[in-house]
Amino acid sequence: MRSSREIERLCRTDVAFRVICAGNLPDHVTFARFRGDFPEAAGEFFTGVLVLCARLGMGRLGTVALDGMKIAANASKAASRTEETLARLAGETVAAHAAADAAEDELFGEGRRGDEVPPEAWSPRSRHSRIAAALAGLKAEREAAEAEQAAKGQAFRERQRSGRRTGPAPKRAAVELAEENLARVRAARAAQLAKTEERYAAGQPDRRSRIAGIDDYCRVREAGAQVDKAKARAAGDERKAAGREADRKGPGPVRNITDPDSRLMPVRGGGFIQGYNTQNMTSEDGLVIATKLTDEQADCGWFEPMLEQAQGAAALIGAHRPDAEPGGPDSGGIGLALADAGYCSEHNMTCPGPDRLIAVGKGRDLEKAARDPGSDGPGWGGPAIQAMRERLKTPGGIAAYRQRGHIAETPHGHIKHNMGLRQLSVRGKRKASAEWTFACAVHNLFKALTAGKLTSQALDSLAATPA
User: Is the C-alpha dihedral spanning 127, 129, 135, 138 positive or negative?
Assistant: First the structure.
């Protein structure tokens, strides 16, 4: 139940709500005010529920699984605007303000405002303010990308000057580097010809007819060819980028003026939603032990942070489980972490943490490779990815990975389909994160109920046990 007014009504008419409220009748404004201020309380509530489940004997950590899920924000994707559109809207807003000021000056006289609105009543979330904030965010993102490219070029040059291995030159610097090399080769050839002229002046036989000039010299021609090649490659990259721009399914970098923190997220089956990308680490018995709401489309960069958060939760569970044996699988350590191909990278394979199985391809391809290990060839990736590919071909590896779907995706299905949370009801990443964390805590309470753990006898014994 997410409507504050509906909750107020049920506190008067529904027995369960009346029992929870102990006969009190809070106003809907109280619920709305709490909803706006509860992000910190939601995190504490999630931790408290996790401790409660651990004290009930839940939280099996032999195998855990990580998965991401897109969830709709409280905003329409039709409210997303490109940087050009936001700049135009901002200009129109400025022009409208100027016209309004001129009209009011004429009506009320200069220096008088007429029926003015007190400053404390101004809305910080007015539409023109959101447009300005969204435009600033897009500009900052573009400038950050340009700064990153410049930093890569600078780092390349520093490695080049110090004599270290440089690797391929950044695309933006390739033409510049080729032109600099051509200038150096031409200068070197000019110096050689100058020395030759000095020898001729000293009386040596004149053989200048058989000596190539600067532009005809073989190394100058090679350097010139490298410049042409670099320019052609840069032009090809621009054409490819233009082609991708024309073929792109989404609108490119945009900001939403209803919820600027949300992003356009691709969803399975095609298309986009305006929303967030949630990350959940789930235990064998279906508890969400770590959760995070992000505004990034890709999952890959969140494997290590979620693994660290899950290890902290595992230590908390191990400290409160009554049946955890010291050093055993339930004493606070994760046995095996599972993740799909969206988290596949050399870094995620080798970062610190427990043992892990990360898919290197689609599930059907993994099953085919496990049935016929020689059918998929050498494959792509570095040594860690190659080793993971071979491990997933073994009976033990593929059998362990098959648990991922049930463990990782069941909580998402329960939250969306059974709890009915398909769209967040608040705006802004901070509040949306709190709402999602609260939903995961409620899911854990449901697991305790359906597992038969959360009974009146169990609660009585917990109440009598020191925290």
Answer: negative
Residue 75: closest CA among 429, 366, 391: 429
Strand partners, 281: 66, 290
pTM reported for the whole predicted model: 0.68
Beta strands in 17-153 (DSSP E): 63-72, 80-82
Centre a 10 Å sphere on the Cβ of residue 1 and count the other Cβ atoms it contains. 11
Q: For the segment 192-228, what is each residue's pLDDT rounded down to a tens digit?
A: 878 877 777 766 655 655 677 777 778 888 888 888 8
Tokens of 8: 């107020």
> What does each C-alpha distance from 324 to 209, 292, 327, 461 come to in angstroms?
91, 27, 9, 18
Residue with tokens 């490219």: 149
For residue 254, the SS3 value is: strand
- What mean pLDDT is predicted for residues 10-16? 93
Q: Per-residue pLDDT tens for 244-275?
A: 545 555 556 778 888 889 998 988 877 889 99
Tell me: the pLDDT tens digits for 149-161? 777 777 777 777 7
Which helix (H) or strand (E) element contains residue 273? Answer: strand 272-282
Please name the helix (run of DSSP H) or strand (run of DSSP E) that holds residue 409, with its range, or none.
Answer: helix 403-413
Rg (the chain; Cα; Å): 32
Q: 3-state DSSP call for residue 80?
A: strand
DSSP class of residue 129 equals H
